[in-house]
Design goal:
The structure is a homodimer. Chain A has about 350 residues and is of the alpha+beta class. Chain A folds into 3 domains: about 80 residues, Rossmann fold (3-Layer(aba) Sandwich), CATH 3.40.50.20; about 60 residues, 2-Layer Sandwich (Dna Ligase, domain 1), CATH 3.30.1490.20; about 170 residues, ATP-grasp fold, B domain (D-amino Acid Aminotransferase, Chain A, domain 1, 2-Layer Sandwich), CATH 3.30.470.20. In chain A, strands 9, 10, 11, 12, 13, 14, 15, 16 and 17 form a 9-stranded antiparallel β-sheet that branches. A 4-stranded parallel β-sheet of chain A has the order 3-2-1-4, with helices on both faces. Chain A has a 4-stranded antiparallel β-sheet with strand order 5-8-6-7, sandwiched between helices. In chain A, helix 1 links the parallel strand 1 and strand 2. The longest helix of chain A is centred in the middle third of the chain and has 17 residues. The radius of gyration of chain A is 20 Å and the shape is globular. Chains A, B: GO terms for molecular function: 5-(carboxyamino)imidazole ribonucleotide synthase activity; ATP binding; metal ion binding; phosphoribosylaminoimidazole carboxylase activity. Chains A, B: It catalyses: 5-amino-1-(5-phospho-beta-D-ribosyl)imidazole + hydrogencarbonate + ATP = 5-carboxyamino-1-(5-phospho-D-ribosyl)imidazole + ADP + phosphate + 2 H(+). Chains A, B: Belongs to the PurK/PurT family. Chains A, B: This is N5-carboxyaminoimidazole ribonucleotide synthase.
């Protein structure tokens, strides 16, 4: 268990690392950001940072000596980096979690192993596998690389037989997974947290809308029944418990139409704070960022209750240029990530707009 | 007007500077802390800090070159420091404000000049003045140094004639002010903000309870009528406008019993974010800290509305040792200032506890 004034090392210097560091400061912990990018926005909010590659063992060694625990803002940390650090101090969440979530196939098998439903899936290593998979799952379907995909990168939508030609080339002939297309009604997500004492909590369920495969808005409460909401929270907490998880995680779920027996299927998990939890900053007293830091520190988790309804809107690319308007928006809070360069599709900030909780 | 990514210089590295820097980060601004104390808690939350005396002109020169605007967390900055900096870049709030608020007599005269009632007061430079003052104002009364007093330091309570003997010695024979004792029913405060465009806002009125002359709790809403609350907000906004103020300020007010014609009298003002505004962090979307940074940046002010009722409790000295309990408290948010040393009477953190807004 950390003591006040201790330092948490954070791998990754993007907006998630930045928001974790800000949350750590609020509860009296220091942070040290490690990131190879000299323009990391998280470098601006801490006294300590290391700008070095994830393979630089001298830098990693010095980093490990300067902090008491390590966490991360992204799941694609090179395995040797984690190995190196965990030989020296706790790295949380643990590497069992990274192994599960870095590979879509392993992740789907994990969901199956704890009876969390997913869309049908098929392991793809060859053209023959792809044909077999399509024969089994039908079309349309999604072909995705097993590793290193995010925001729609590394995936192909297969609508008809003709789309199979060249599909494996399009994703670089990497090990892949074929996923049955699910005619979902809504996309929702659950943010759960667990600490090393086993205390497990979750936030209210969020409803997400994507645009060009990037999250655009998150609305809480989601337009779902209390029963579905309770099931979704149970899924988040079950994942955390099954993995002996320490920290915050997100599980993205599809809500299927009423005509399906099983209405919730897990899409994927993220072993970290998640864009669909940014609303917690403005509608809860303890945000997902603070919750994650508490868990990593071995501290008691905080109250996850919501004081307000909320809509989070991502500010992507040029959206941020209207910042004076966003600052003036009633009942709204702008969070700007301090990125030095605006690019198309780049997450630059978000706007949380709250309103009083509506009665059921 | 600052641009996103610009840097605000903050004089003073205590908890107020720290919370201002955290708020600046949220809206995409950098900060640079200037403080002579090597253990300044604000140093931990920014990439840039200068540890040097307020008289070190080389350090001040380098500081001035590295930031676009300067603000401060305390009103007792040496006048030559402000002179030096304001010759180079904007220092906000302006030095007219510091001149007014650094001297209790000037401040009381300023209140009088804009028709804001205060307790009776008398300028004291000698034993004779003290006797004349007591003859005019009666006893009990308070003898206070004109400058450099805070948290009850530099003041003596005069209950009866015998207390006059040695009273001036007790405050170091400095220029002083005698203030009539006011039989107040409650202590309240208003937090107001104004930007350089003249936009002026205020927060809901807070009720304060002191213990050993240090703020212990702030409760919002205060137990006052809507009319008194409206008057108090007007006082805050009037002060901001009269001073062409840029930033956040607090005015502490006494509420007199119903039997008095004039129920509100101003006690003192603070030209900065204020302990009695820490509740805004948890009960409003835009805290006093962010509001101050917005004003100093020349940016639009934010919504001051409250989404919750709230009680802020200061954690003083050993109170912070119960941090695991504070972290677990329902509907509560702990803010810990990251101070390396706990001392009696030292403000170490605060706890905000919220509840749904009660109907009138």
């Amino acid at each position: 268990m950390l003591q006040p004034g201790d330092t948490i090392g954070i791998l990754g210097g993007g907006q998630l690392g930045r928001m974790m560091a800000l949350a750590a400061s609020r509860i009296g912990l220091k942070s040290h950001i490690y990131c190879p990018d000299p323009n990391s926005p998280a470098f601006d909010v801490t006294a300590f940072h290391t700008c070095a590659s994830y393979e630089d063992e001298a830098a990693l060694e010095a980093f490990a000596r300067s902090v008491q625990r390590v966490t991360y803002e992204f799941e694609n940390i090179p395995a040797p980096t984690v190995e190196f650090l965990k030989a020296r101090l706790p790295v949380l969440p643990g590497d069992n979690v990274l192994k599960t979530s870095q590979d879509r196939l392993t992740e789907k098998n994990f969901f199956a192993s704890i009876d969390i439903p997913t869309a049908g899936f098929y392991d793809i290593s060859s053209e023959q596998d792809l044909r077999d998979g399509v024969a089994k799952l039908g079309l349309p379907a999604l072909l995705k690389t097993r590793r290193f995909g995010y925001d729609g990168k590394g995936q192909v939508f297969l609508k008809n037989e003709a789309d199979l030609t060249g599909a494996l080339d399009a994703i670089g002939n990497q090990p892949a997974i074929l996923e049955a297309f699910v005619p979902f009604e809504r996309e929702i997500s659950v943010i759960a947290a667990r600490n090393e004492q086993g205390q497990t909590v979750s936030y209210d369920i969020a409803e997400n809308v994507h645009k060009n495969q990037i999250l655009k808005t998150t609305t809480v409460p989601a337009h779902i029944s209390p029963e579905v909401a309770a099931q979704a929270r149970q899924i988040g907490e079950k994942v955390a418990q099954a993995l002996d998880y320490v920290g915050v995680l997100a599980v993205e779920l599809f809500l299927l139409p009423d005509s399906f027996d099983q209405r919730l299927v897990a899409n994927e998990m993220a072993p970290r704070v998640h864009n669909s939890g940014h609303w917690t900053e403005s509608a809860c007293l303890v945000s997902q960022f603070e919750q994650h830091i508490r868990a990593v520190a071995g501290w008691p988790l905080g109250d996850t209750r919501r004081h307000s309804d909320v809509v989070m809107t991502n500010l992507i690319g040029d959206d941020i240029n209207a910042w004076p308007k966003h600052l003036s928006h009633p009942s709204s809070s702008l969070h700007s990530y301090g990125k030095s360069e605006t690019r198309d599709g780049r997450k630059m900030g978000h706007l949380n707009q709250i309103s009083p909780i509506k009665g059921d």
